[in-house]
């Protein structure tokens, strides 16, 4: 019994520990977008589905001892795929089709080990049930989810802050070898425990009726709804805050906690209590969707609390309807189908089909409908009518929220990198101001009136760090200026006759909107050279550009992607700088303090660093609060500080380790 529990625990721990490891490893190759995590979850759920299908077919078609032989051979073959380190060659093709390339690199790197790990839980439970003739296997499922949650929660606290990502991958590979040994030991115990009578008796001869199709569809629906809400709410968190491992693993840990509680013992799902909490969760989430600018602790608490209620209801109802052990593998197969369908809707179909984040209202409505379906047989007629009326009203409210996503905007677009919206707002006597929004984050704005249209605004106004840095550049010769991250193209307004500005942008939709909805690029006096692709990767492949100034202004949600702030990235930027050039990094952020990150990198590279923290005066419609870091060689710092009197030196934080491509610790810079 102990060997089965140990194998299940170890497999589940490794199964979920590899998820943030591999996602963090490939995140820089795909622009640091929050969609990378959603796509990774789609892959993991699809692999889980294949693993459960494999176990179901193995359980139905082969005798117990033949199952041991087949599975043992596959385990040994999977060792040839170690270590699980992604091939850097994938960086060269990542931009072409990011969604499918994420899936391809995951399949090539962790496909075989992950598939076999995903089979362990249901397979060990099936072997355990045959060996001991007990209903205990469902508690082994709870144990596996406990291990999964521990793996996720330990990553941002005990793994990410202390080990570079390649070390994490090698340590995981060692753990996988130990798992193979433990699994083979359990298989040997199962081989010895199978009686000759059981060996001769086919599993399908047990007189237990097969669950009807409608019951299987309900299992799929409940699992799919929980999966949709998990990914949709995680996307909401990571886009508007930051695509950081902590905000990846927290919702997923809550999702797994609901599995643990529901499968460990039915009493943890108090049906009446959670059904009362469900409409409260709907109302709380309605407030989150309707209001912006909510404090981060409150935002995270409301989203995670609502997700816990949704998952407890979905998974609690699943456990109430679980079949006899004879059909255990079919039950888990239906759960994995539902999870994969939900993940595919959010991660693959929604970005291609929708121009806004409609998958969250869809998931909420499905949850409400499924509750009515499970309650319908026991409900009195009056309650049935009340439930139908309630879900109709709630459906109308969700339609209204969905309409708000796109109503009153000039343009609404969406792809792998997120949702873009263009909005016009009135600014008293100055006329209409046009904004470019990524999610809820402002990525640039422009006044439409001709007398103001060439004036830089927001984080790029003349009083900002980047504005003053650009105005400090020599005027007696043409300048070369690079910008990583286009936005609305505001910085183009600083271009003068003879200047060349190279604008690096990963999202073709951003470039299209900057050209069609804003006039900064068209009205610039400089020669504008757009470069489509990940800015860092493009710079790494180009000859030295001899920039007078290079601005790093690429944002994913409210945060600059971590791979643009590492030592390796900074070294790449310096290769393109003139000796007296300025490297300007936009580090404005509501949730993360990025100052120690750039300060540590500057200290490692022997650079001096100044920061300009602009807090505009009340009523200033041209400037927004901004924080820019200006990195220069030591011989240039005195003249730059004389030109920008508001700049202050930034000393490195004692003990703060510089970020590298293999190491970053976002928990250490949370505000």
From TrEMBL:
Transmembrane segments annotated in the record for this chain: 36-55, 67-86, 98-117, 138-158, 170-191, 216-234, 246-266, 273-290, 296-318, 330-350, 356-376, 383-403
Gene3D superfamilies tied to this protein: Vaccinia Virus protein VP39
Keywords, comma-separated and alphabetical: Membrane, Polyamine biosynthesis, Transmembrane, Transmembrane helix
GO biological process entries: polyamine biosynthetic process
Domain of life: Bacteria
Record's protein name: Spermidine synthase
Lineage, highest ranks first: Bacteria, Pseudomonadati, Pseudomonadota, Betaproteobacteria, Candidatus Accumulibacter
